[in-house]
TrEMBL record, chain A:
Annotated membrane topology: Peripheral membrane protein
Entry GO MF terms: ATP binding; ATP hydrolysis activity
SUPFAM superfamilies (UniProt xref): P-loop containing nucleoside triphosphate hydrolases (SSF52540)
Organism from which the protein derives: Kribbella antiqua
GO cellular component, one term: plasma membrane
Record protein name field: ABC-2 type transport system ATP-binding protein
Lineage of producing organism: Bacteria, Bacillati, Actinomycetota, Actinomycetes, Propionibacteriales
UniProtKB/TrEMBL annotation, chain B:
Source organism of the structure: Kribbella antiqua
Domain of life: Bacteria
Membrane-spanning ranges: 20-41, 81-101, 121-154, 160-183, 190-208, 237-258, 296-314, 348-367, 388-409, 429-453, 460-478, 506-524
Keyword Transmembrane tagged: yes
Official protein name in the record: ABC-2 type transport system permease protein
Signal peptide residue numbers: none
Length: 302, 530
């Protein structure tokens, strides 16, 4: 398996702000890769370095096998980019922008263009200034999706889209995946990431703190357990992976690392289980844990 | 009254944003007036020398059309400040209008006003606040100028009249700015409208000043009104009622326009356009042309018109020399032909300065495209940085070339036609226009290299331009050393038609401009975008 994007040890500062602090990122060819992290974590900065718009201070960056700083224009013909904030030229229509950007990338697929315009319900005859935020976003999306490229780099592409349009977007990305295109998708919408992405990387303060498939990541989360036992429990507190243990007579509440679930269940059934509620981990919990400012595990807060 | 809610807050916000800019401008104007008056007082110690200087000025069509007449040849104040009366009023008016647009349309365009409007802002709050700030600035500016002129020893009544001249022009154009800010959706276009109105006002007064039988034309122009207050030469305070009436009318007009439009919208609603791009729109250069062409058409038309006017006035130089003493003076200065040429070369210099303003503005477009995040999506396609930079640089350099040549064409045709020697006059004026270009390109190139090296400082391009302008206009009055005078590229431009042409300054200016432009490509390739 080859990699469309390989970043290792990337640093980037803006004056005194250390925006990227040794970032590592790998996106395999043909996968849809989610890129998540709290505001100001460095997602857009990473993307701009990948596009050769910014120059990294240190570290290696490889994009489609080339160096984005030196071969920017050549590599750009093979990718399409949708920025998080789309500003259009006030006196150009949306249709003109779509054609212009497509041609500068090396060509527009007219059939696909017409199809996308219809699916996104976008009027291409309006002037740039008169589009709403969501419609500006659609112009950039149609321009990117209508070009025949290997790699899509999308920075919060659905910000401003209504739920209906977001559904259309998901279908489009699904189709791209089937055509074996590579997608790097930065997003704050967890359901979107869950639905679309093969793998995700979570970035925090300029570093990637988790990366893997969603089921890999689920293993890193905790299952919350409420149990009523026949006798009072013993030995639970000394088991590894048990958090926030709360015993009230024969009742037990706790959070268990998913990897340790088996051992904990054995211990519980040793005391005789009368009733049990086990809540599976949600992705939200995982993300929120990384979004929390002071890396404190969420369970401890409860 | 809820329509005005939040005005006070916005005034404070605007004053905070401009806490450096406004005092700086006031100081520049006050120092310019007082310094210029002091220098002239030293230069013309007695009535005799004053009258002589004033007669020379009044006999020169170049000076009269550029600055206006000296209404009292023996008045110390009138002679000292003649270059600053109408010209200064023009600059104050520009400042006043820009201040209003800056705090209304520009804020609306970038969406900040919407953020605030969601709070407790009445619909008139923004325009009222901007107007208060602008009017307050010019009134204070006029008052301090008057005080400083009294300070250097000019008489009180005249000094107050002079301050009123500037302040009234400023007030009138604060009102004009309030109206133009409502018309279009872009601050750039609004300032363009203001500049056109201001330019027409200045040209009208130039026509009025040029000949006695067209004197009434001055009264069509707000700048003409400011002049007709005649500071130190009659002090006709009552004339200031005219700009004040204009002020009231424009402000009421602006409020009426606001009632008719939505936030963010202009009066002129954009119409739908083509659903697909034309086959030609496939390169950065084609896009740059799309972005610059509207303003180039407008400027080009203005230049052609100005050229015609200049050429037309030039053919009437005889009209200036009516009295015996003036005839003598003309002979001393080299005859009617020499004076006509001197007039034309001065006016071509002014066209050169105006064209530079276009060049600077076109080059600044690079930065506004970058900060508005419109450069980023282009640079993320197959377009190299050099091609993108080159497209706008080319528009700036090509545009200024077109403008001066149009000015040369207009003045060549009209002066050729009225003097009856088109075959000689047209090529002479085209050459006079062409020699302006190296200095224009150098100033444009300064903006481009700033964009490549220190993008946050690009607007310093205007400061450099203003400095060169002041050196050129007032360097001689202030008796600046030659080494400082040499800093202005415009000082090296050969004075055509009529003057000596030497190739070396033209070549040097061109070489420096080219070197700066080329260097900007290297520096821009090396820096971060954003
Ligand atoms: N041009 C700039 N100058 C200075 N600091 C910047 C600049 N751009 C970004 N930063 C800083 O770099 C850090 C990373 O910003 P970045 O835009 O990459 O975050 P992000 O992950 O995209 O956030 P968001 O989710 O809000 O889009 C932030 O602290 C931000 O303030
Ligand atoms: Mg971002």
């Amino acid at each position: 398996m080859t990699s469309a994007i390989v970043v290792s040890g990337l640093h980037k500062s803006y004056g005194s702000t250390h925006a990227l602090d040794g970032l590592d990122l790998e996106v395999a060819t043909g996968e849809v890769h989610g890129f998540l992290g709290p505001n100001g974590a460095g997602k857009s900065t990473t993307i701009r370095v990948l596009l050769g718009l910014l120059r990294g201070d240190a570290g290696d960056v490889s994009l489609l096998g080339g160096d984005p700083w030196h071969d920017a224009a050549k590599l750009h013909r093979r990718l399409a980019y949708v920025p998080g904030d789309v500003n259009l030229w006030p006196n150009l229509t949306g249709g003109e922008v779509i054609d212009l950007l497509g041609r500068l990338r090396g060509g527009v697929d007219q059939k696909k263009r017409a199809d996308l315009l219809q699916r996104f319900d976008l009027d291409p005859t309006k002037k740039g200034r008169t589009y709403s935020k969501g419609n500006r976003q659609k112009v950039a999306l149609v321009a990117a999706l209508a070009s025949d490229v290997e790699l899509l780099i999308l920075d919060e592409p659905t910000s401003g889209l209504d739920p209906l349009m977001e559904e259309v977007f998901r279908q489009c990305i699904e189709e791209e995946r089937q055509r074996d295109r590579t997608v790097l998708l930065s997003s704050h919408i967890l359901s979107e990431v869950e639905a679309l992405c093969d793998r995700v990387s979570i970035i925090r303060r300029g570093k990637v703190v988790e990366t893997g498939t969603l089921s890999d990541l689920r293993h890193l989360t905790r299952t919350s357990i409420h149990a009523e036992l026949a006798a009072s429990p013993n030995g639970l507190a000394s088991l590894p992976g048990v958090h926030g243990l709360d015993v009230e007579g024969n009742r037990v509440r706790c959070e268990v690392d998913t990897a340790q679930l088996d051992a904990v269940m054995r211990q519980l059934s040793a005391s005789g289980i009368k009733s049990l509620v086990a809540q599976p981990p949600t992705l939200e919990e995982l993300f929120l844990r990384h979004y929390e400012d002071d890396a404190e595990p969420l369970a401890a807060v409860r | 009254m809820t329509d005005f809610a939040g005005t006070g807050t916005l005034v404070r916000l605007a004053l905070r944003r401009d806490r450096v800019l406004i005092p700086l401008w006031i100081v520049v104007f006050v120092v310019m007036a007082a310094g210029s008056a002091q220098a002239s007082i030293d230069l013309y110690p007695d009535v005799q020398s004053r009258v002589e200087a004033a007669r020379t000025a009044n006999a020169s069509p170049a000076l009269v059309s550029l600055y206006g007449r000296i209404f009292d040849e023996s008045s110390l104040g009138a002679v000292s400040l003649f270059k600053l009366t109408a010209f200064g009023a023009l600059l104050v008016a520009l400042l006043a209008a820009i201040l209003v647009v800056r705090h209304t349309r520009a804020e609306e365009e970038n969406g900040r006003l919407e953020l605030l409007s969601a709070g407790v802002l009445g619909r008139y709050a923004a325009v009222t606040a901007a107007f208060i700030v602008s009017a307050g600035t010019v009134v204070l500016l006029g008052l301090l100028t008057a005080l400083s002129l009294m300070g250097v020893g000019l008489d009180t009544r005249g000094s107050l009249a002079f301050g009123l001249t500037w302040a009234s022009a400023g007030l009138a154009f604060a009102g004009v700015g309030a109206v133009t800010a409502q018309l279009s959706e872009g601050a750039r276009t609004a300032n363009g409208f203001t500049a056109i109105i201001l330019g027409v006002s200045y040209v009208l007064r130039a026509i009025g000043d040029a000949k006695s039988d067209t004197g009434w034309v001055s009264w069509l122009s707000p700048i003409g009104w400011a002049q007709q207050i005649r500071p130190y030469a009659g002090d006709r305070f009552v004339v200031a009622l005219l700009p004040l009436v204009l002020l009231v009318v424009t402000v009421l007009g602006a409020l009426a326009l606001i009632r008719r439009r939505d936030l963010g919208a202009g009066l002129v609603r954009p119409r739908p356009g083509p659903a697909t791009a034309s086959a030609a729109l496939r390169s950065p250069l084609a896009l740059a042309w799309r972005l610059h062409r509207g303003s180039l058409y407008g400027w080009g038309f203005a230049f052609l018109l100005l050229g015609f006017l200049v050429g037309n006035i030039a053919s009437n130089v005889d009209g200036f020399v009516t009295s015996e003493s003036a005839k003598e003076l003309v002979q001393k200065l080299g005859g009617v032909d020499a004076i006509t040429d001197a007039f034309l070369s001065t006016e071509m210099g002014v066209l050169g300065l105006l064209a530079s303003a276009f060049g600077i503005q076109a080059a600044l477009r690079l930065r506004s495209e970058e900060t508005a995040l419109r450069a980023e999506p282009l640079l993320a396609t197959g377009v190299t940085r050099s091609r993108w930079l080159g497209s706008h640089v080319l528009m700036a350099l090509f545009g200024t070339g077109v403008l001066v040549l149009l000015g040369g064409l207009g003045s060549g045709i009209s002066s050729g036609a009225s003097l009856g020697n088109m075959g000689r006059q047209l090529p002479r004026m085209l050459a006079a226009a062409a020699v302006q270009l190296p200095a224009i390109w150098l100033v444009t190139a300064l903006v481009v290299i700033l964009f490549g090296l220190a993008p946050k400082l690009v607007t310093a391009g205007w400061v450099l331009f203003g400095t060169f302008l002041l050196i050129g206009q007032f360097g001689a009055v202030f008796d600046l050393p030659q080494s400082v005078m040499n800093l202005s590229p415009y000082g090296h431009t050969p004075r055509l038609p009529g003057g000596d042409f030497s190739a070396s300054p033209v070549i040097w200016l061109t070489v420096i401009a080219a070197a700066l432009t080329l260097a900007s490509f290297t520096t821009f390739r090396r820096r971060d975008i954003g």
